[in-house]
């Protein structure tokens, strides 16, 4: 079961005006803040990457894999998606502590 586009639109709406975008990935979505992947949206649930600040927002009981074989992420309870101040803080602070993504080398052009 893949994530509904309405769920993604709702999450993005709740995160406005943060610099956030979603990218489709294998029927699910990656959630990027400040061009850093901070979360996944899988099966209509938002899973935030664990970082040093995660414990300020959720405890270990919220840890779950977003898909089979994945490392545990913090699953945001659906009622917390309505708390925009809490959600903004969690997503923005997660982005703030994650490293910048590595630049991919440009592929050489062939003639």
Overview of this structure, please?
The structure is a single chain. This protein is of the alpha+beta class and 111 residues long. It is 23% helix and 25% strand. It contains two helices and six strands. A six-stranded antiparallel β-sheet has the order 1-2-3-4-6-5. The longest helix has 14 residues, at 84-97. The radius of gyration is 15 Å and the shape is globular. The N and C termini lie far apart (43 Å). The mean pLDDT is 93.
Number of extended strands = 6
Mean pLDDT: 93
- What general form does the structure show? globular
- Biggest sheet: strands side by side, in what order? 1-2-3-4-6-5
Rg from alpha-carbon coordinates: 15 Å
H/E topology pattern: HEEEEEEH
Helix percentage? 10-25%
- Termini separation comes to 43 Å
Beta-strand portion reads 25-35%
Identify low-pLDDT runs: none
As an assembly, this protein is single chain
Q: Major sheet, described briefly?
A: 6 strands, antiparallel
Number of helices: 2
Structural class: alpha+beta
């Amino acid at each position: 079961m893949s994530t509904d586009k309405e769920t993604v639109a709702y999450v993005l709406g709740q995160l406005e005006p943060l610099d956030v975008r979603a990218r489709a990935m294998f029927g699910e979505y990656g959630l990027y803040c400040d061009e850093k992947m901070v979360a996944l949206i899988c099966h209509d649930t938002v899973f935030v990457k664990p970082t040093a600040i995660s414990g300020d927002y959720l405890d270990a009981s919220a840890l779950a894999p977003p898909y089979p074989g994945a490392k545990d992420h913090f699953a945001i309870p659906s009622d917390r998606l309505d708390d925009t101040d809490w959600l903004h803080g969690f997503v923005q602070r997660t982005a703030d502590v994650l490293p910048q993504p590595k630049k991919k080398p440009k592929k050489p052009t062939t003639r």
